[in-house]
């Protein structure tokens, strides 16, 4: 599944970049995030709780920054599994920041998510809707937090 989006906000580019690399701050934007801890300067581990159809799952995951070009581009790859064997997932996310007119920064992102196991049994349509919903909530939360903490 591919999820893409972008939004603009009034803030200095470097502040937006620094914000994106704060694991505790990002965790507070992820719907259902219960934990996110830095392993090192490029790797985070966490737990996210989600409900998909009749199944409620906790997902353990590891996220690693694999391509970082400050302050404009980052690529993160992740993998994880649902506690109780409900499935596994991999994801690759790219975030690009660009200064645009009026002192604004455009935040553009794309994320490829692959899910296998019992979670995938619900079919791509249900999983795509769930992933899009979580992605939209994350983006909304991120935008609000960015505007309140680093917005100019």
Overview of the structural elements:
The protein is an alpha+beta fold. The protein contains 4 helices and 7 strands; from the N terminus they run βααββββββαα. It has a single domain (2-138), classed as Alpha-D-Glucose-1,6-Bisphosphate, Chain A, domain 4. Helices cover 29% and strands 50% of the residues.
Indicate the topology.
Elements: E1 2-10, H1 13-20, H2 23-27, E2 33-38, E3 43-52, E4 55-69, E5 73-82, E6 88-100, E7 104-116, H3 118-121, H4 123-149
Antiparallel strand pairs: 1-7, 2-3, 3-4, 4-5, 5-6, 6-7
Question: Could you write a compact summary of the structure shown?
Answer:
The chain has 152 residues and is an alpha+beta fold. The protein is built from four helices and seven strands.
Low-confidence segments, given as residue ranges, are none
**Helix content range:** 25-40%
Largest sheet: 7 strands, antiparallel
Strand content: over 45%
Output the strand order for the largest sheet. 1-7-6-5-4-3-2
Order of helices and strands: EHHEEEEEEHH
Quaternary state of this entry equals: single chain
Secondary-structure class = alpha+beta
CATH fold-level name: Alpha-D-Glucose-1,6-Bisphosphate, Chain A, domain 4
CATH architecture: 2-Layer Sandwich
Total number of distinct structural domains: 1
Count the strands?
Answer: 7
Q: What would you give as the CATH superfamily?
A: START domain
For this structure, what is the CATH class? Alpha Beta
